[in-house]
């Protein structure tokens, strides 16, 4: 507002030229104004704006002498002002008088109140209000009520939100606007209107009594006057003198205040104690609510006291400004002096031969590197760099320590201190990238999108360490790369599989020969940003050797509470890694140390079902492999039946890496077959040159070159519609050129002289190239010719399972699989009940077999009390394949069913598989790996599944294509399994 007042005075000089009122001539000579006149050092009257000067260094004697010498001139000026005061006053006399304005248009002031005697430019955006002000000015009723706007409830008046508040005020009308206005304001004369800018001059205080009109807001007002006061009161005098003294101190320090004082004193009328209080509050930079408090105060002493507090604050601010300016000036002068001395020292050392050019160039290189990062680099790092640069200047270039220091500075200055890449938290963009790179994995994608959404709401994505767990080949590493693409972060990957040296993570000490920083420092140097996405691969395969425990060293790296000040042994300065997003991968999370696992958020990737593998093979693997082998789409066809046979009989694992290897094997054999037939997709420069030299002849049967190019373009477009890589496109253009040349020769064969170069020595070669090549078709019938004999046989050994055999479901690190549990009777005799176990079973599985025998015996006694099978039979339980280690409790119910089937001589229902842990009382406990086991059941064409009831929620969360076509039963006790396996169909849920 203060700057605006000064600006308004400069813009409207004719309006702002005013002489003091005649009625105030007596008070002009009062002691108050005499003292205030010394603010300018006595060089001219305060009220004579044309001679206004500010000299803070003038002495008291000079002030008195100047004041006495100009007293007569001042009296003459006052007398002259009596004659033409009306003509020169900026306050235009109106009819009726000011006291008659009891109803005024309310003009909201958003930033500061208007004090009497001061100008203020205001921008009016409400067109109705602006039109009303213009009409008032035309009727010579150029007055309005200026009222300060209250802050909204719950907002801090010290926080600047000017644009928002103005926008909200413009939308308010009538009573809503009246509620937002302070009751006490100022009667303001409208001195000029230019566009939407209205310049106001304050006259006297007003108080709103009631609303007259809503739009524009017109209110009834009462004119306020100061409470009576004794101008000879000592307390008031002392307070006013203190205000003047404080103002004088501030004026010495701030030239901006001098301009405000000079502008104000050119247009002020009578100057007294109330005006002094208004003057101090108006030109201060205080909070608008404090200024409003001064405006509302009618007691002169209290108003002076409030103003004194404001100007005292301004004096403290001026002192603080001076100290800041002095500190900056000293710093700048010190830097300049240091720079000058350094340059002189360099020149002296160069003349004396004390410094080599190599050392100077090194120092200059390091300083140039760090110069651009100086603002973002932490102060402790800058201090270390300066110390090392000083040390470098003192070391001999041939010493070993010189090389250590040089390498150390090289690492310190190359790191991206404070350099962050802008993150992209657009979930739609992330969804698009994830769908482009990966098929299926809907639950994993959903979890990653949730993570990105939380990052968008927080504004940052650090604080979480994601661990992608799953079998090999399911795309854990590529998912990490896709997350980096989605977030627009740099990507860096390093594997910790088999890592046994802590120095790989924390760095070596600089004292060692060949010392290097740790992987994280190398990562920051490589990516060039301080917030990359770091993929730590194979974290479940960490080693532990004589050099320490890397898993414990990773705790500091991954813990969000510790990596804010990560300390690398080589750099020996703290590095902030809190902005780095860590993504870890593991095959088996049980192998990860618990303290490390506790800091991670696990996202399990179970694997792909057959349908998903078909899509991945067709849309991703086959396309990329074909491009990598340089084969065109029209040269080969791999049928769906071949892909399905490849997946079922060769690549049953959960991932697709082995599937990719088999597809590459197929295409390599196809490439060899095509080359043996004489196909070459390489660019042929000779053919291109022949095509360029073809010219049309004058014969009627000649083909114009434009037609050749047109036909070539059409064929090129048809080929380009297929998805091929740039190298294949280039090869297509060459082949099209060859076909065009061949077409020219064959078309113009009857006219021997139509083309001068039509019969050249390369005719036989072109015929060989253009010979029709038969497309290679890979079907299930000839798949063995490309990839050999099937690796896997059908998991279902029996079409109808015999007595004593039941199919179970198992989870492995490679995904899910089915396994048969077979029980047979070895020997029978009274009291010969026993159990023999084979199949390389673990301890837990052996215990499950013993529990199964006990539970099966109890159930058999319940169902067939006379059957003494378990008491008199020696049983042999086997779980093929015998070479594969097996362990886990979830085969308990399958073992019981196998034993009961043998005991009762009944086979189980066809196409049935089950899983679940059993207690001695026959309760079925939940199991793990629901998705993997479901996939294994689908692969073996199982139609009926039995799961523990506690796993129903896990099954419901599976994708619909995983559980499609399966009849699933959820059971709580083994009695329910008995009924399902041998008799009824209770508790069925069909998907």
Strand content: 5-15%
Biggest β-sheet strands, sense, barrel: 8 strands, mixed
The backbone outline, from C-alpha atoms, is elongated
Global mean pLDDT: 75
Number of strands: 25
How much helix is in the residues?
40-55%
Low-pLDDT residue intervals, each spanning 5 or more residues: 1-35, 38-94, 162-166, 685-771, 984-991
GO molecular function, one term: ATP binding
Keywords: ATP-binding, DNA-binding, Hydrolase, Mitochondrion, Nucleotide-binding, Protease, Serine protease
Region (Disordered): 66-90
EC number: 3.4.21.53
Please give a handful of descriptors for the protein shown.
alpha/beta; 5-stranded mixed beta barrel; disordered N terminus; PUA-like_sf; 8-stranded mixed beta sheet; elongated; 38 helices; 991 residues; 25 strands
What's a quick, concise take on this entry?
The protein is 47% helix and 14% strand.
Would you mind describing this structure in some detail?
With 991 residues, the protein is of the alpha/beta class. The strands form six sheets. Strands 18-19-17-16-20-23-24-25 form an eight-stranded mixed beta sheet. A five-stranded mixed beta barrel has the order 1-3-4-5-6. A five-stranded parallel beta sheet has the order 8-9-12-7-13, with helices on both faces. The protein is elongated. It is built from 38 helices and 25 strands. α9 (234-253) packs parallel to α13.
Topology:
Layout: H1 2-11, H2 25-28, H3 31-37, H4 60-69, H5 71-88, E1 103-109, E2 119-123, H6 127-138, E3 143-148, H7 162-171, H8 174-179, E4 184-194, E5 197-213, E6 218-224, H9 234-253, H10 255-267, H11 273-282, H12 288-296, H13 300-352, H14 357-371, H15 379-394, H16 400-414, H17 427-437, H18 442-458, E7 465-469, H19 476-487, E8 491-495, H20 503-506, H21 519-527, E9 533-537, H22 550-558, E10 566-567, E11 574-575, E12 581-586, H23 594-597, E13 601-604, H24 610-629, E14 636-638, H25 640-649, H26 657-676, H27 685-693, H28 705-720, H29 726-747, H30 763-769, E15 776-778, H31 784-787, E16 805-812, E17 815-828, E18 834-838, H32 843-863, H33 869-872, E19 873-878, H34 892-904, E20 912-914, E21 917-918, E22 924-925, H35 930-939, E23 944-948, H36 952-956, H37 960-963, E24 967-971, H38 974-982, E25 988-990
Parallel strand pairs: 1-3, 7-12, 7-13, 8-9, 9-12, 14-15, 16-20, 18-19, 20-23, 23-24
Antiparallel strand pairs: 1-6, 2-5, 3-4, 4-5, 5-6, 10-11, 16-17, 17-19, 21-22, 24-25
């Amino acid at each position: 507002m203060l700057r605006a007042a000064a600006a308004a005075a400069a813009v409207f000089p004719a309006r702002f030229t005013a002489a003091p009122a005649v009625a105030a001539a007596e008070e002009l000579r009062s002691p108050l104004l005499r003292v205030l006149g010394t603010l300018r050092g006595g060089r001219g009257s305060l009220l004579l704006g044309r001679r206004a000067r500010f000299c803070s260094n003038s002495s008291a004697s000079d002030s008195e002498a100047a004041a006495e010498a100009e007293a007569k001139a001042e009296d003459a000026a006052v007398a002259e002002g009596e004659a033409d005061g009306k003509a020169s006053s900026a306050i235009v006399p109106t009819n009726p008088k000011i006291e008659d304005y009891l109803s005024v248009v309310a003009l909201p002031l958003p930033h500061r109140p208007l004090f009497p005697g001061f100008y203020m430019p205001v921008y009016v955006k409400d067109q109705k209000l602006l039109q009303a002000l213009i009409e008032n000015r035309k009727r010579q009723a150029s007055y309005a009520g200026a009222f300060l706007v209250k802050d909204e409830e719950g907002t801090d008046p010290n926080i600047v939100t000017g644009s928002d508040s103005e926008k909200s005020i413009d939308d308010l009308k009538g009573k809503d606007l009246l509620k937002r206005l302070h009751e006490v304001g100022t009667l303001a004369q409208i001195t000029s209107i230019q566009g939407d800018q209205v310049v106001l001059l304050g006259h006297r205080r007003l108080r709103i009594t009631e609303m007259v009109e809503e739009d524009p807001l017109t209110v009834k007002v009462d004119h306020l006057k100061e409470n009576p006061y004794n101008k000879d009161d000592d307390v008031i005098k002392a307070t006013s003198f203190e205000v003047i003294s404080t103002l004088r101190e501030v004026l010495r320090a701030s030239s901006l205040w001098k301009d405000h004082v000079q502008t104000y004193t050119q247009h002020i009328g009578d100057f007294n104690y109330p005006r002094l209080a208004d003057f101090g509050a108006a030109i201060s930079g205080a909070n608008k609510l404090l200024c409003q408090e001064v405006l509302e105060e009618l007691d002169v002493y209290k108003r002076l006291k409030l103003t004194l507090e404001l100007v005292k604050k301004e004096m403290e601010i001026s002192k603080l400004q001076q100290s800041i300016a002095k500190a900056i000036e000293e710093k700048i002068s010190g830097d300049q002096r240091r720079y000058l001395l350094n340059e002189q020292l360099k020149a002296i050392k160069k003349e004396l031969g004390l410094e080599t050019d190599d050392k100077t160039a090194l120092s200059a290189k390091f300083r140039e590197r760090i110069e651009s990062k100086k603002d973002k680099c932490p102060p402790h790092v800058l201090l270390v760099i300066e110390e090392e640069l000083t040390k470098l200047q003192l070391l001999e270039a041939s010493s070993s320590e010189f090389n250590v220091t040089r390498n150390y500075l090289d690492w310190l200055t190359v790191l991206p201190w404070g350099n962050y890449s802008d993150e992209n938290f657009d979930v739609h963009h992330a969804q698009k990238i994830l769908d482009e790179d990966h098929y299926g994995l809907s639950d994993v994608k959903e979890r990653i999108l949730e993570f990105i959404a939380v990052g968008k709401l927080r504004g940052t994505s650090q604080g979480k360490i994601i661990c992608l767990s799953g079998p090999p080949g399911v795309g854990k590493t590529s998912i990490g790369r896709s997350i980096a693409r989605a977030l627009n972060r740099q990507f860096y990957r390093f594997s910790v599989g088999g890592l046994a040296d802590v120095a790989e993570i924390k760095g070596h000490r600089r004292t060692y020969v060949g010392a290097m920083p740790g992987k994280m420092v190398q990562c920051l140097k490589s990516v060039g940003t301080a917030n990359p996405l770091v993929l730590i691969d194979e974290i479940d395969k960490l080693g532990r050797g004589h050099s320490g425990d890397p898993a414990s060293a990773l705790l500091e790296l991954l813990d969000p509470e510790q990596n804010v000040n990560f300390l690398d042994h080589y750099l020996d300065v703290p590095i902030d890694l809190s902005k780095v997003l860590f993504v870890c991968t593991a095959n088996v999370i049980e192998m990860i140390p618990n303290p490390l696992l506790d800091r991670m958020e696990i996202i399990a990737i179970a694997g792909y079902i057959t349908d998903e593998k078909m899509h991945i093979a067709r849309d991703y693997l086959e396309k990329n492999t074909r491009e990598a082998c340089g084969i065109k789409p029209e040269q080969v066809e791999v049928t769906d039946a071949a892909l399905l046979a490849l997946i079922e009989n060769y690549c049953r694992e959960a991932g697709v890496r082995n599937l990719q290897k088999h597809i590459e094997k197929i295409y390599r054999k196809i490439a060899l077959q095509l080359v043996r037939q004489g196909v070459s997709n390489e660019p042929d420069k000779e053919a291109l040159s022949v095509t360029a030299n073809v010219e049309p002849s004058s014969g009627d049967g000649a083909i114009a070159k434009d037609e050749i190019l047109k036909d070539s373009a059409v064929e090129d477009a048809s080929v380009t519609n297929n998805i091929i890589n740039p190298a294949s496109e280039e090869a297509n253009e060459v082949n099209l050129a060859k076909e065009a040349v061949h077409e020219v020769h064959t078309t113009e064969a009857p006219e021997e002289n139509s083309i001068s170069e039509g019969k050249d020595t390369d005719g036989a070669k072109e015929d060989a190239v253009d010979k029709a090549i038969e497309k290679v078709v890979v079907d299930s019938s000839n798949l063995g010719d490309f990839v050999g004999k099937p690796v896997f046989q059908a998991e279902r050994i029996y079409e109808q399972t015999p007595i004593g055999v039941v199919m179970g479901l198992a989870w492995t690190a490679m995904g899910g699989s089915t396994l048969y549990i077979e029980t047979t009777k070895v020997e029978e005799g009274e009291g010969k009940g026993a159990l023999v176990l084979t199949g390389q079973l673990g301890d837990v599985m052996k215990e499950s077999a013993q529990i199964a025998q006990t539970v099966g015996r109890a159930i058999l006694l319940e169902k067939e009390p006379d059957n003494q099978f378990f008491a008199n039979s020696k049983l042999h339980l086997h779980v093929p394949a015998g070479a594969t280690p097996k362990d886990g409790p979830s085969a308990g119910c399958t073992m019981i069913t196998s034993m009961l089937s043998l005991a009762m001589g009944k086979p189980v229902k066809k196409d049935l598989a089950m899983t679940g842990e059993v207690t001695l009382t026959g309760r079925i406990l939940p199991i793990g790996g629901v998705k993997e086991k479901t996939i294994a059941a689908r692969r073996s064409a199982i139609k009926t599944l039995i799961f523990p009831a506690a796993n129903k929620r896990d099954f419901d969360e599976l994708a619909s294509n995983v559980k499609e076509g399966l009849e699933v039963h959820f059971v709580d006790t083994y009695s329910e399994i008995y009924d399902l396996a041998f008799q009824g169909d209770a508790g069925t849920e069909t998907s």
